[in-house]
Amino acid sequence: MKPFWWLPAYSRLPSFCIFLFVTCLLLPGISSAAPSISLSKKSGPPTSGIVVSGRGFKPNVGVDIYFDTKDKALIATNGEGDFENVRIHVPRRARPGEHWVTALERNNDKGAQKPFLVQTDWSQFRFNPDHEGLNAYENVLTPKTVTGLGLKWSYTTGSWVSSSTTVVDGVVYVASLDGKVYALDAHTGAKRWSYTTGNVVYSSPAVADGVVYVGSEDGNVYALNAHSGTKLWSYTTGGNDTSSPAVANGVVYVGSGNYNVYALNAHTGAKLWSYNTDSVVGASPAVVNGVVYVGSWYPGNVYALNARTGAILWSYTTGSSVQSSPAVADGVVYVGSADYSVYALNARTGAKLWSYATGDVVYSSPAVANGVIYVGSYDRHVYALNAHTGAKLWSYATGDVVYSSPAVANGVVYAGSYNGNVYALNANTGAMLWSYATGAFVYSSPAVANGVVYAGSWDNNVYAFGLPDGDQGKQEAASEHPDLKTLRPDFSLKVSKLVAAASRH
């Protein structure tokens, strides 16, 4: 056995001293652990709520939460250097593109960052299930900037494009009378995939949870993988399915030429219920507060159905065919009819509140924004009507039939006409701000998302219109990656109260 003095010096120390020695060696590693943060979501529109949680900060210190360079919240870490469930909101003026959320210890440069993508999806016909046709998040195009719109790209399909476009996660989904559904890159127009149905497609795609839903004249409703175009399921109604699906709470609602309205399980395609209207249902259903609102051709009824069971709640008979899709806002259903009129009905009872007579049939679906109804008519006009009284505020003559349903975003109304033009009108005055001449009828309803206007034409093309790249670059300057050392705390902030963990989902 070797002598005691051969052992390393530290092994001859008392055990308590050895413990202190090892602890001192480990402390630097503990104190230098890099902070990290997690976000409840990676993307969303302006005004979105984001829940932020953090790890690895100093214990019991103040941490400021920034969106870009703006200090939005102050939170205190616990004894382990963590914090959870701090809610902040994306600024209303945050432009589309990548932004940054930063958690930074107050009076220190120690922090962590995560990117957040500001984007607005136009996920189904008329924007969302209530069919208001309003993108309330648009902050790039305004009555002043829209005059600078130019063609960003166009994509040529194999036939006329009657379908309206949907825009989700940087992809444009649209259908054509060549029987195909297309997925196009929203920035370049490059085709990502296409899927061929068995007949022409008038229906506008709806996108939810990574799935594209669309009807075809072959009598089927299809569910396609949004990333690959692979068919997930199809449901055969047996009628010509020109209706654009509406998706809400895991259910697909769609009308058919076999006179029925269907509710299908969005995951499996299994039929949940159907309701027979005794006439063709070509309009897209609107779904609000557990009620499905839809019109049928003859005798021109508007129906309110229980969204869970399909039981009829009420019906209202207009003077002719209802091919317009209802819009629902503030307890009122707005819809057009082939009897030349636009109707406002009580959403709970179906009682008529008012009607307005245009000069021809109204197949266009109304849009609702800021107490005003915007709708097109075969009398070649786009109308703005007071939502409470039906009084005409203004009308704009396009020069030909307006079947296209108007879209509204940030003070601008967008609509197409059979004269081949896409128009941008001042929402307050009806003055024309911009127009673009395609090569044929514009039957498609425009979609507006992330500072770009998308529309289809019977010249076989899908179009994307946006501002010049230089202007867009200036608008996104605030999204540059912030340097931690340049961030300045807001000393007026009080320590935030934590939100419940459930709000992270």
Overview of this structure, please?
With 505 residues, this protein is mainly β. The chain has a domain of 115 residues: Immunoglobulin-like. It has 2 helices and 40 strands. It has a 5-stranded mixed sheet, with no helix packed on it. It has a 4-stranded antiparallel sheet with strand order 9-40-39-38, with no helix packed on it. Strands 10-11-12-13 form a 4-stranded antiparallel sheet, with no helix packed on it. It is globular, with a radius of gyration of 28 Å. The N terminus and C terminus are likely disordered.
Task: Write a concise synopsis of the structure shown.
With 505 residues, the protein is mostly beta strands.
Strand and helix layout:
Blueprint: H1 15-31, E1 36-39, E2 43-44, E3 49-55, E4 62-67, E5 70-76, E6 83-89, E7 97-105, E8 111-118, E9 150-156, E10 166-168, E11 171-175, E12 180-185, E13 191-196, E14 206-208, E15 211-215, E16 220-225, E17 231-236, E18 246-248, E19 251-255, E20 260-265, E21 271-276, E22 286-288, E23 291-295, E24 301-306, E25 312-317, E26 327-329, E27 332-336, E28 341-346, E29 352-357, E30 367-369, E31 372-376, E32 381-386, E33 392-397, E34 407-409, E35 412-416, E36 421-426, E37 432-437, E38 447-449, E39 452-456, E40 461-466, H2 469-475
